[in-house]
Design a protein that fits this description.
By secondary structure, the protein is an alpha+beta fold. The protein has three helices and five strands; from the N terminus they run H-E-H-E-E-H-E-E. The chain is 31% helix and 38% strand. It starts with a helix and ends with a strand.
Amino acid sequence: MLKKIAIAAAFVLTSAAIAQTQEIRGTVTDSMCGKHHMMKNASAAECTRACVKSGSEFALVVGDKLYTLKGDKAQIDKVAGSNVRVRGDVNGTTITVKEIKAAS
């Protein structure tokens, strides 16, 4: 039992060490459309919001990479389709958003 607890504690500590707070610039989109929005006659913001409403996740396009954005959806929704600066914890292809602002 003690061995299982030690393994679980090591896993939690390792997982915490993997996530790193960073500032990343990119464009807010959704996980289904990515770089290329599929809705004709809709802005990037409108398409992103419609896809998220249909179950897609907010995402951030950075070059050829796509990160899933986790956090306050209302805050992220305000900058849907926009170029932004995101400060958050990056773990693999997921960013837990601490702050998101339109890029200046």
